[in-house]
């Protein structure tokens, strides 16, 4: 078996790391740009004035070169802290529409929750590392956002 050194000029390897985190939050699907009747028609029972809740499961995936010295794309301890700061602190056990300023003017669909998480994760992660945000709203409803 050949000895591979750290300075080997072989092609760099790219890896993906996914960290899974769950949080609970409530919201109401309601657009300030639609009438009450339009909101009821578009969002149905999810437009309930009292809102409803979810136990969201979020998968944050980063993609990058596997460092030859550390063997890591990034330190998982750092990723865990970024997820705590970006997802858990602002969103867990919150009313998304009332407790998160972003959703005062943006409908709190799972698609928009994914965009919110992406926009805030990209601010704290090293450049070009964030690959994907995947949110399981329910067992049957999953949203994927890749910054496009």
Q: Output the helix-strand order.
A: EHEHEHHEE
**Strands of the biggest beta sheet: in what spatial order?**
3-1-2-4-5
Structural class: alpha+beta
How large is the count of helical segments?
Answer: 4
Largest sheet: 5 strands, mixed
- Number of DSSP E strands: 5
Query: What is the CA-CA span between the terminal residues?
Result: 44 Å
Tell me the overall shape: elongated
Strand content: 25-35%
* Mean pLDDT across every amino acid position: 94
Q: Which blocks of ≥5 consecutive residues have pLDDT under 50?
A: none
What percent of residues adopt helix (DSSP H or I)?
A: 25-40%
Description:
- The chain has 148 residues and is of the alpha+beta class.
- 29% of the residues lie in helices and 28% in strands.
- The protein contains four helices and five strands, in the order E-H-E-H-E-H-H-E-E.
- The protein has helices at residues 36-43, 76-91, 96-99, 110-124, and strands at 14-27, 52-65, 94-95, 130-136, 142-145.
- The longest helix is centred in the middle third of the chain and has 16 residues, at 76-91.
- The model has no long low-confidence stretch (mean pLDDT 94).
Protein topology:
Layout: E1 14-27, H1 36-43, E2 52-65, H2 76-91, E3 94-95, H3 96-99, H4 110-124, E4 130-136, E5 142-145
Parallel strand pairs: 1-3
Antiparallel strand pairs: 1-2, 2-4, 4-5
Helix pairs in contact: 2-4
Q: What are its keywords?
A:
five-stranded mixed β-sheet; 148 residues; 28% strand; 5 strands; elongated
Summarize the structure.
The protein is α+β, with helices and mostly antiparallel strands.
